[in-house]
Amino acid sequence: MASIFLHCTTTASSPPSTKLHPLLSKPTPFISHASRSHRQPLHISSCVIPNQKNSSDYTQGKLDRRNILLGLGGLYSAANLISPESASANPVQAPELDKCGAATNLNNQKVLDINCCPPIQGDIIDYKLPPVHKLRTRKSAHRLSPIDVFKYNLAIQRMKELPEDDPRSFMQQAYIHCAYCNGAYNQPGQGDLDIQVHNSWLFFPFHRWYLYFYEKILGKLIDDPTFALPFWNWDNPKGMTIPPIFLDSKSSIYDSKRNPDNLKAVVDLGMTKIKDPMQLVTNNLTVMYTEMIRGNADVYDFMGQPYREGTPVSPGPGSSERGSHTALHVFVGDPREPSGEDMGNFYSAGRDPLFYCHHANVDRMWTLWKDVLPSDKVPDKNITDPDYLDASFLFYDENAQLVRVCVKDCLDTRKMGYDLQRIDLPWLDYRPPIQTALARIKRTSSFFPKASTLFPLKLNKIVRFEVQKTKKGKADELLVLEDITVDTTKFLKFDVFVNDEDDNALELDKAAYAGTYAQVPHKAPKKTSTTSIRLKLTDLYEDMDIADDDSIVVTIVPRHIGSGVTIGGIKIIANPPKA
Ligand code: C2O
Fold it and tell me: Which domain holds residue 145?
């Protein structure tokens, strides 16, 4: 294993090949579900860490780290740990394009195979960020100048005019998301374990690189290296509708597959379906505050849980991914379409130009989180684990050159050549009001069932139960929801409240709101995956004056219809967790 890993050059197994787009040619790299081949572990990443170039040190580091990981049994869900059989902890490797198989989706209750494999052309080059001469400034899509709008439309128009087998064409760019998210790729050398770029620490870096090349391609098509994608500023009341530039049916950035009821509506980041626009704005700012500031105890709670080679997909999404990010996919997707196309399912999301504008704001959240979160909230906002830094993906750059990129090269947007228009952040001061009056529920907490009697819990209605704190007076704690098994083909969402007397809280702007789980529908079959989330309770205890209690009353409110989520267990742990 070690010696394979150390030859840090391009693929040993896939000789350079030039093939036409799978839709246009045969034979094709598209492999149907049943016959996808799972041979050979020889795909090699070159994303090594510069200060670990010495090969033996690097190997040693890997092995040591694995031992440490194995010792952390209680910290993360079992799905997250390296199984003793796997040779070592390694980063998730870029896919082998020639082994791309069918992506899948559930369409009118039938599993549908989708061919979204990319064309394969040329050798893979390890991507080096070019020197930056002038920064590209990403601006709010609600504040673009007419010339910015014109350029944006022209660039997308030209992308749509590229031949379909050009890897930079509009549909090929959309297929990238389908392939990485609906199960077209296996992890190299790891049997039929999928590559999935959601619900883990790969979420932010993958999408950052994806948008980076998308933006560079658009800039090249209009011969403007300063072209920057606009962001949908949904975290600010002034940006809380679909940006009007996307509603002109004659423009190239229009998409007819959007929810007609939401074209001019205030966005619903809380996914409560409440109608009052004032309350929606309040909910939205509370959701932002909770997922950016209040609800996370460590960097993984925000970024997503560790995801390594040989481990199952979806170890746990970060707060931003499962919150505002998911909400807008669902808000825009068209309920008249079988799978909420385009935005409402990962396989089709990239077909709506609004998707990239949405993700430009998701990407902005990563930057803002690092900038504005007080460091006493989360001690370290960077992930230094080599399995994160060395994870890699493949894209085609603006010259249609196939390139391999590493997570570690996308951590600084200015080195990538872009920065952000500065806009005020009203959610920063949205800590919910102190809510100490709810003494009733404290006194009656012992009348509620104990958590231990209810779990595993099939979540199809509102549940309320008592959970024991780690100890009386412990002020710094986390609520852990473990082994959340989800049907990946469905929209699912639930909110968690603590000591709340309201039965179906549609107003989220209160101290009792602890956080959210939500997912965008994606691949089928193998329809379930198991994930976990953590919600920090420290500020909530303070806001509700309940740090001294022995136990809390948790309410879980599902926002989806029907079943689809089973929560394996729930518990409170001390923060920081004991190693
Ligand atoms: Cu890759 Cu918003 O999804």
Answer: 6-420
